[in-house]
Structure formats: C-alpha cells, structure tokens
Amino acid sequence: MRVSQCVVCKEFPCRDIRRERHIVPGISLQPDLISIALISEAAPEQRSDYYYSKGDALFQRTTVAAFNQAGVNVASVKEIVERGIYLTTAVKCGKTSYGIQTETIRECSLLLEKELALFPGLKAILLMGDVAIRAFNYIALRLEGKRTIPAGSTYRIRAQRCFFRGIRVFPSYLQAGPSFFIEKSKQRMIAEDIAAAIGLAPAR
Predict the structure, then answer these.
(1) What CA–CA distance (Å, rounded) separates 132 from 154?
(2) 3-200 belongs to which homologous superfamily?
(3) CA angle 130, 131, 134 (to 5 degrees)
(4) Which of 37, 63, 186, 202 is least crowded, fewest Cβ atoms below 10 Å from its Cβ?
(5) Residue 42, class by beta-carbon neighbours within 10 Å (0-12 exposed, 13-18 middle, 19+ buried)?
(6) What is the longest distance spanned by two Cα atoms in the chain?
(7) Claim: this prediction has a pTM higher than 0.90
(8) pLDDT tens per residue, range 45-93
(9) pLDDT of 156-201, one tens digit each?
C-alpha cells in the first residue's frame, strides 16, 4: 500500500499553506505491520528535508537522533519503519509562517483521520508538538465527542495516560527540524515518550 494513493487533498482550501510543498508519504508498506504512528507538525520548507527523502534530510536526521536517544539503535527512517513505526505530519503542506491557523489544522485533520484509519494494528500514537495534538483532538471530537488530550501545557499533560479507542496516545514535543537541537530537556522528554511507546509495541 502507498499512503499517498489513499489520502488525497483535492481542493486545498487552506489559506496559510504552500500547496507546492504538499507531501503525503509515498512509501510502500504493509499497513498491518505498523504498530506506532508518529505525527509531527507540517511538511518541511524543502521537500528534500522530508522523512522519506533521500540524502541528508533534516526530518530524518533529527528523528533518527531522537530514536537513538530513546535507546533505539537506528541509522535511517527506513530502519524506523522496518520496526513498525510510521512517520507523518498533521499538516500535509508547508506553512507560510511560524504558526498555523486553526482552520488549517482542523481541515488537515480530516486527511490525518483517513491516514490513521489505514493502520488497524496501532498500539501507540506519538503526537509531536502542539499542532499534532490539536489535529488529533479534532479527530477525537468528531469520532468520540471529546478530546483525547486534555488542555494544558505539554509538560504537565504528558505524564497522564491518554487513550483513544484502546490506543495509547502520547502528547510530546516536536522532534522534526532544527528546534529539536535547542533544548536538552525537551530532547530527554521526547526520548522518554518514544521509549514508552515502543514499550507498548516492541520492535518486530
């Protein structure tokens, strides 16, 4: 299966995105082998920096570093995926400014909902940053009538055990991009969350 063939945005209604930077993962995988989904913010400024791009992609570099800090010995996103971990973004297009409008996050959550539904064996979902948390809460509100992640700072709520239809959901910090290298304390918490998620769905 290729996710990009199943999850398609046809109208591009959002006003604060760069349509030319629209990316949905095009890798070929077996959906029933995916046990963890990691969701970060938005597509990168350069397509060459995306998770599944070749070469020294920024998203790949920082994500591999995060997994190694979590005690997972990997050298590439390919190796992460081979462990049953799928990487994607909440917003499929590049952003035009630092923030992302509420309507854009809500609209893109419709695509994310379809995307996550492709993986019937999910045991854990990692929400990396506020945009991913908000997008997932829109999904939960539509399907369950309530938020999965409570309101509050990530530092406070990440200690809580959150579930969505039996799947453990982890609110965490953004690991994709240059911000990952800024705060050592956030690196530690990201590593803790990744390790906890993997503990629920051990590598194959």
Answers:
(1) 12
(2) Uracil-DNA glycosylase-like domain (3.40.470.10)
(3) 85
(4) 202
(5) buried
(6) 42
(7) yes
(8) 899 999 999 988 999 999 999 999 999 999 999 999 999 999 999 999 9
(9) 998 899 999 999 999 999 999 887 777 889 999 999 999 999 999 8
C-alpha distances out from residue 193 to 8, 137, 160, Å: 30, 18, 12
Would you say 114 and 124 are in contact if contact means Cβ atoms under 8 Å apart?
no
**CB 109 within 8 Å of CB 100:** no
Residue with tokens 């082998």: 33
| Contact status, residue 29 vs residue 80, Cβ threshold 8 Å | no
Task: Report yes or no: 74 and 68 within 8 Å, Cβ to Cβ.
Answer: yes
HEC per residue, 143-171: HHCCCCCCCCCHHHHCCCCEEECCEEEEE
Q: Over the stretch 12-39, which tens digit does the pLDDT of each residue have?
A: 889 888 888 899 999 999 999 999 999 9
Report the Cα 5 to chain-centroid distance in Å: 19
